[in-house]
Fold these 3 entries.
Entry 1:
Amino acid sequence: MEIKKVGVVGCGQMGSGIAEVCARAGYEVVVSEVNEELLKKGLGRIQTSLAKAVERGKISAADRDAAWEKIRGTAHLEDFSACDLIIEAVVENLEEKKKVFSALDKICPAHTILASNTSSLSVTEMAAATSRPDRVLGLHFFNPVPVMPLLEMVRTILTSNEAYQTARNFGETLGKKVILAPDTPGFIVNYLLVPFLLDAIRALEHGLATKEEIDQGIVLGLNHPMGPFTLADFIGLDTVLYIADAMYQEVKDPRFAAPVLLRRMVAAGKLGRKTGEGFYKY
Ligand code: CAA
């Protein structure tokens, strides 16, 4: 099956990046937000990123214009009715995601593949909210989407071979390296990343070292681009907590138990870069 038109539900940090890379790969893209104001903000984010890609010499001005022309914004899910593949990137909340999947299932033709960008929730549960569980899978992108080369693909026990192969080919046309993960908490990357971030916070709580020293240790000793505190601030501390809680909830593995410091920082509204303060001030 050939993918021509792609839908992206949600134009936040992840959705806008996903819409951008799809348009840059030549697909027609419809991207939605819940209202016009958020849509305008999301589309603005895409324009800024496209401009940055030109500035950095990654694409030409003509490529930027061609990509921008392929993107259409909407505040109505009905506008996804002609999409061959839809990637959901709404808030990380299972009930909200199930509502989106159930609505898309009614709007879209039988051939449409429905994918979720979830980083921690069960794709099988989303599939079960539709009448086409064989055509539902996970396509987990990494932030910043236009820069990070990985696409983690989640295949459930219900995903058909055809849907899997079509989505995998699609991911490769975006220029991403695709890895296959099962529908288990955190898939591959967050199964390892989340305990690492939580352990760093626990180490800080226990007075092992300062956050600056821990970050430097990881950057300079392991060649990571960011230390765990810088990375947690970049992801958003609320998101880190949400993912950890969702993973803990499913398997009760203490590796995923969030430290009190993280919970308190989120309660205090120190969410990282997006609020101007997390472990560091921005
Ligand atoms: N389009 C295309 N390319 C772009 C671009 C854009 N809009 N913006 C920047 N780039 C390119 C730059 O040209 C540069 O490319 P080269 O290396 O070829 O020169 C590269 O991207 C890096 O850009 P910058 O120089 O602006 O930034 P930097 O060197 O400070 O790196 C960073 C920034 C990419 C964020 C880097 O710090 C990094 O990789 N951090 C770790 C990010 C990470 O771990 N992300 C995953 C988070 S976890 C997640 O997303 C999943 C989850 O479920 C929680």
Note: The mean pLDDT is 97.
Entry 2:
Amino acid sequence: MTSRPFIVAIDGPAASGKGTLARRLAERFGLAHLDTGTLYRATALLVLEDNADPADPVAATAAARRVDQSLLSDPLLRDERVAHAASVVAANPEVRQALLDFQRNFAAHPPVPARGAVLDGRDIGSVVCPAADVKLFVTADPEVRALRRLAELQASGVAAIYSDVLQELEYRDTRDAGRGTAPMVVPPDAVVINTTALDADAVLERASDIVSRAIAG
Ligand code: C5P
């Protein structure tokens, strides 16, 4: 057993089920969890609160440098307007650079007593933690993801229309996969889990098998 933390990298598009999986895997295996989307969302929220433009590189980079742990649990981060602005700031290479240390530091020094960490996002297996012990890419058909996101929004009391939700997901997929720096990609050594026809429990069991085998070495 080495003292190096055990790292699970989970990437995938919005509403694919990767966040739920990351949280549940972390609980099951005694790992810390970092939802790296919150860093981009916190950056976006700071920009919007300053009435600045998320596409303005100076404003976005300054905001990314102000992000710290205390901002990551703000309920406003879940707002769809913030998600949209997050995908705009996330295309900026300097924003990504400013947030990289936070993510790598979390992976290198997960909060005690965790023996490792699960990080979920878009570029974890490719850029943030390329040496991760397990790499998963969680995806699902856009229509199924839109239905899931719609149900989440409605459950939290937000009125939303299916076609708008689908359009927004496709907008973010295109931006996230098409940007020049750290685009969303399937790392060559990742296991792809398509959750279109799987419920959250089935996804957890499939991923747990992979993690258990990696822990056993
Ligand atoms: O995962 P979530 O939907 O919260 O992410 C919000 C946005 O943050 C994504 O659409 C993406 O643009 C950006 N992001 C990223 N890299 C990550 C995590 C999130 O570019 N590792």
Note: The pocket of cytidine-5'-monophosphate is lined by residues 14, 36-37, 40-41, 83, 86-87, 90, 121-124, 172, 176 (CB under 6 Å).
Entry 3:
Amino acid sequence: MGASDAGGSSGGDGRHDAALPVIDVSPLTGAGSAGEVAGQVSADQAAVARQIQEACRDYGFFYVTGHGVPAALMSDLAAASAEFFALPAADKMEIAMAHGGRAWRGYFPVGGELTSGRPDLKEGLYFGTELPADDPRVVAGLPLHGANLFPRRVPAMRQLVLSYLDAMTGLGQAVLAGVALSLGLDGGYFAAGYTAEPTILFRIFHYPASPPGTADWGVGEHTDYGLITVLAQDDSGGLQVATADGWIDAPPIPGTFVCNIGDMLDKLTGGWYRSTPHRVRNLSGHGRFSFPFFLDPGFAAEVPPLPDLASVGDDGRPRWDGADLRAFTGSYGDYLLGKVSKVFPQLRRDVLT
Ligand code: OGA
Ligand code: NI
């Protein structure tokens, strides 16, 4: 499918009729390419990198096709997710996040997560890299590291989530190889550095239908925290992306993933690539499922700006939340914990203090 088929919908509420680009990333994901992006760059890979650069400069968002993720994996995961969220509340609460302890895994009910201080109209499952209890990071009590909580009532979920994490890690690394090329870096720049031991978070969200005319956001305006997000969404719609000209829709396109860049890529590029605010309101009249996967720097990594790009500077536009990413100098783990404890204040009290 070409970019012209992506079909932005015209909004009657001030949204604009622009379409986010659709990029065929098969030159980055195709057989044998993953390791080789680090060496000789093919003409096709260079062309993909140019499209990624344009998309990151214009929107910070793009769709990917040619990703190689099996459709059956996606549909099986979607079916298991529907089964889980349809369970009685007590069954879902068996794996409530409170049972995940410092690893911050498990289920949270509607209203359990805040964006910009307001409860979101969504329920969800939090997953991450599956680490055994004797992993040194778990032994050391590093927050957000540990074992996942899987639902007893949906036994298929465990293997599906673990397979999906593998598939998304591969795709995310391939897209990051394209991002590296787009910045004039070696294709293996991220895989050899920031994402050699990545921080991986994965969520499955269920957004109940928002009643028309209410101000309830499924997830309020925000940017993502790390390097890159790879999102699968069902056919409900409702994801919106901020552009220089206002909000546009990121409608579902079957067989694609939505990729967007996060705060660490913004910081790394000194604002040359901006992490883009987005939000969700589910007006479909039925439940909406989405599957955001986050491929982020290792917990201990600091992310100073690349010298060449820092000298170019950003476009001078203030960030949506008024924050100055350049002023933050700690590790990615520090940044992430600061963010996560704002969206889960109860867990901050229970776990981090
Ligand atoms: C997120 C997010 C969008 C969606 O999890 O950061 O923006 O469609 N999700 O669920
Ligand atoms: Ni997001």
Note: Confidence is low (pLDDT under 50) at residues 1-12.
